[in-house]
Hints:
The chain is built from 10 helices and no strands. The chain has helices at 2-8, 11-52, 88-92, 107-125, 130-152, 157-172, 179-204, 211-224, 229-249, 262-282.
Amino acid sequence: MFELETLAQIPVLWYPTIFVLGAVIGSFLNVVILRLPAMMQHTWRSDCEVFLEIEPSEKAEPLTLATPGSHCPSCKTPIKPWHNIPIVSWLTLRGKCNSCGASISARYPLVELATALLSVAVASQFEFGAAQGLALVATWALIVLTMIDADHQLLPDDITLPLLWLGLIANAFGIFTDLASAVWGAVCGYGSLWSVYWAFKLTTGKEGMGYGDFKLLAALGAWLGWQSLPMIILMSSLIGAIIGITMMALSKLGRGQPMPFGPYLAIAGWLSLVFGDTIQRLSPYF
């Protein structure tokens, strides 16, 4: 711990260390983003088959975050360790499988790079210690939630609920805010979107968002306190509106097509966590 704390006092060494750590974590996050929804769907299918007392529709090999090992989705060839170095391997392989030459999505290195850069941003805003470590964990969780919701319009309880509890535990020690503010942040975060959901549904007969959004905002409230909720809601709405209008203008999103709200909550929550004080100083609206 002493050596790490000493290293953290030397930015020219600490930030590259955090960058490399973030890239490695980003590689693992890619696995979570890809496999967790598939694991959930497998569990749901199995539960339904047991409930309906029918034979399993398929006998797929066990899927966990650890098994099967990383492999090319096209030729199924296991990926060698030196072909699995974050960012670097994709660049050296020119985005192609070393065995079959199939293209490998650029999203994998982009997630690794984003995780590395956001981790460095966290390290630059928090002093070495519990707050910095917890902020890094929150950042990584929000990246996973953003990507899964963008892909599947799903915010897994396996991430949102532990994130909520971790925020409450952290603030039991007053790391980001006091415990009372954290508890009311969780309550008001969930209740505010729950109220909007039901008001919209009773008025239009349609569902405007999912319950995962309620849990995510509750988690953000548990981390940052109820005082942060207006800023998070306003920023997420602005970000969502800007991106939605842009996608419609580029014909990437059809009118009436559902758009996940979780990514915008996650972005606004991360900005509030890392740059909240600066944003409040610069903007008269928060």
